[in-house]
């Protein structure tokens, strides 16, 4: 717990206390270190496409020997692709994704855990999350799947 000392005699003290607090929160935020970066823009695909769902650890680190999890939280089981001890753990994987997912093995040493999804189905539309246990943050990527080829216009908001 942290206590912010405020001078009760000064009329500006609540404001000063607030700015100290904001500064501390900013510092904590900057110090939390690595995070996973997915995509702020949705990935748009057509049925049958082979696509890549981007996700990388920043700052980069070799994650070849770490556990990597891709999930769809709305599904049961939620696992799309799990890599553990250097190989894919297929036992808990949702059957929809059987033999359709892979990681880019040579990219793992650069912290790139992007997922390749082959032969996209309409049911693949959804929100995917990438996660490395032990790393604080998880990230998500949205996938939209269209039946036909069409042009999609969307606005993005950078965060
Ligand atoms: C991650 O690897 C994929 C596949 O090689 C590549 O398309 C993508 O650009 C890489 N991402 C980064 C951030 O290097």
UniProtKB/TrEMBL annotation:
KW Electron transport (keyword) present: no
A Pfam match: V-set
Residues of the Ig-like domain: 14-142
Localization: Membrane
GO cellular component: external side of plasma membrane
Keyword list, A-Z: Disulfide bond, Glycoprotein, Immunoglobulin domain, Membrane, Signal
Family matches, as SMART domains: IG, IGc2
Region forming the signal peptide: 1-33
PROSITE patterns: IG_LIKE (PS50835)
Listed InterPro entries: Ig-like_dom, Ig-like_dom_sf, Ig-like_fold, Ig_sub, Ig_sub2, Ig_V-set, IgSF_BTN/MOG
GO-annotated biological processes: regulation of cytokine production; regulation of leukocyte cell-cell adhesion; regulation of T cell activation; T cell receptor signaling pathway
Keyword Membrane: yes
GO MF entry, a single one: signaling receptor binding
Protein name: Ig-like domain-containing protein
Source organism per UniProt: Lates calcarifer
């Amino acid at each position: 717990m942290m206590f912010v000392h405020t001078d009760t005699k000064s009329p500006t003290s609540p404001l000063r206390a607030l700015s100290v607090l904001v500064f501390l929160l900013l510092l904590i935020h900057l110090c939390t270190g690595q995070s996973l970066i997915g995509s702020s823009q949705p990935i748009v695909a057509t049925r049958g496409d082979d696509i890549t769902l981007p996700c990388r650890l920043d700052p980069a680190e070799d994650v070849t020997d770490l556990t990597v999890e891709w999930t769809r939280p709305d599904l049961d089981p939620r696992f799309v692709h799990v890599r553990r001890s250097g190989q894919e753990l297929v036992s808990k994987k949702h059957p929809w994704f059987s033999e359709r997912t892979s990681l880019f093995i040579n990219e793992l040493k650069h912290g790139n855990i992007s997922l390749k999804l082959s032969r996209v189905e309409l049911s693949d539309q959804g929100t995917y999350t990438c996660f490395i246990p032990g790393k604080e943050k998880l990230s998500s990527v949205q996938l939209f799947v269209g039946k036909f080829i069409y042009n999609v216009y969307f606005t993005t908001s950078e965060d």
